[in-house]
């Protein structure tokens, strides 16, 4: 199956899942827009205007027809095309996620290698702790420290909270990659067979570390790619709790309001970005270790 066909079919599945989820959710977009005090007649009239009173199957194909032509409809909350809203907010969220992933990737690599050279037993435990802490808990703790202890708020110290958001996103990939690299560089206890042979030849320790380090990069890249959904989740938590501008927080609010246009456009755009990122990472894996690329 070609990449283009795979991509189109995957987008169709994503759209179908979103539509079905919104069909069963107890969310009335008309009621959410007019408020709890609006009369039933006003809500019914708005539902008819929004096309929500049509049969489910007709609505599915009607929206799908627009989506195929790149028209995701207008957001009833923002009063403008949903794609314009998403394109204005999504780059902010994606940039935070990318910075956090890059920071976690290089932090995990460098700290794990340094800890292995120093034979530190504390660093792996720290990596494991960081990896297992849920991102929302880490965000809450950082918020408490910043606001409760330092007296800082997003309005007064926006740069600080932007940095804290990136640190939150970087936590999981740093922990996961750090543990992986630390274990792979352990040529004294857990090691490939060819390392035993090299040890018999009295190969220098630095040379063994460099060899294992190069072989570990492909696995570290794979871990970073698999951390993308976790990074987006952490970004969403950070935007909501820290009050930062971005699509993550708006996505949650749109789900609560039943704004299908925003959710559909945003989800499909993020999926397209992740799909492209996955394919680029496959090329990187093939560069560092063709054996792993053949198994993908």
Ordered list of secondary-structure elements with their pairings:
Elements: H1 3-24, H2 29-34, H3 40-49, H4 56-68, H5 82-118, H6 122-132, H7 135-149, H8 158-184, H9 193-200, H10 205-226, H11 228-242, H12 247-257, H13 260-288, H14 290-295
The fourth-level CATH homologous superfamily of the largest domain is MetI-like
Order of helices and strands: HHHHHHHHHHHHHH
Fraction of helical residues: over 70%
Give the tally of structural domains.
2
| CATH architecture designation of the largest domain | Orthogonal Bundle
| Quaternary class | single chain
Low-confidence stretches: none
Tally the beta strands.
Answer: 0
CATH topology of the largest domain: MetI-like fold
Share of residues in strands: under 5%
How many alpha or pi helices?
Answer: 14
| Rg | 24 Å
Structure description:
There is one protein chain. With 296 residues, the protein is an all-alpha fold. The chain folds into 2 domains: 3-68, no CATH class; 82-295, MetI-like (MetI-like fold, Orthogonal Bundle), CATH 1.10.3720. The protein is built from 14 helices and no strands. The protein has helices at residues 3-24, 29-34, 40-49, 56-68, 82-118, 122-132, 135-149, 158-184, 193-200, 205-226, 228-242, 247-257, 260-288, 290-295. Helix 5 (82-118) crosses helix 8 and helix 7 crosses helix 8 (158-184). The two termini are 14 Å apart. The model has no long low-confidence stretch (mean pLDDT 78).
């Amino acid at each position: 199956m070609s990449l283009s066909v795979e991509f189109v079919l995957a987008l169709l599945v994503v759209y179908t899942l979103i539509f079905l989820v919104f069909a069963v959710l107890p969310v009335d977009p008309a009621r959410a827009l007019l408020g709890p005090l609006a009369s039933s007649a006003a809500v019914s009239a708005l539902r008819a205007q929004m096309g929500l009173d049509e049969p489910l199957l007709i609505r599915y194909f009607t929206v799908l027809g627009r989506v195929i032509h790149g028209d995701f409809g207008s957001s009833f909350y923002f009063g403008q095309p949903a794609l314009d809203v998403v394109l204005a907010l999504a780059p902010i969220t994606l940039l935070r996620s990318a910075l956090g992933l890059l920071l976690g990737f290089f932090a995990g690599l460098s700290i794990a290698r340094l800890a292995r050279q120093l034979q530190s037993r504390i660093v792996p435990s720290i990596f494991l702790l960081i990896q297992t802490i849920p991102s929302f808990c880490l965000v809450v703790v950082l918020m408490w420290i910043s606001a409760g202890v330092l007296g800082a708020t997003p309005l007064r110290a926006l740069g600080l909270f932007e940095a804290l958001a990136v640190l939150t996103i970087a936590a999981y990939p740093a922990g996961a990659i750090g543990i992986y690299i630390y274990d792979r560089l352990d040529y004294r206890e857990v090691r490939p067979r060819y390392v035993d042979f090299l040890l018999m030849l009295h190969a220098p320790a630095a040379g063994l570390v460099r060899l294992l380090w190069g072989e570990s990069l492909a696995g570290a890249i794979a871990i970073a790619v698999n951390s993308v959904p976790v990074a987006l989740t952490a970004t969403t938590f950070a935007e909501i709790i820290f009050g930062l501008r971005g699509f993550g927080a708006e996505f949650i609010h749109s789900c609560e309001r039943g704004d299908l246009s925003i959710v559909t456009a945003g989800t499909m755009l993020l999926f397209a970005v992740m799909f492209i990122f996955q394919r680029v990472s496959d090329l990187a894996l093939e560069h560092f270790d063709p054996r792993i690329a053949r198994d993908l």
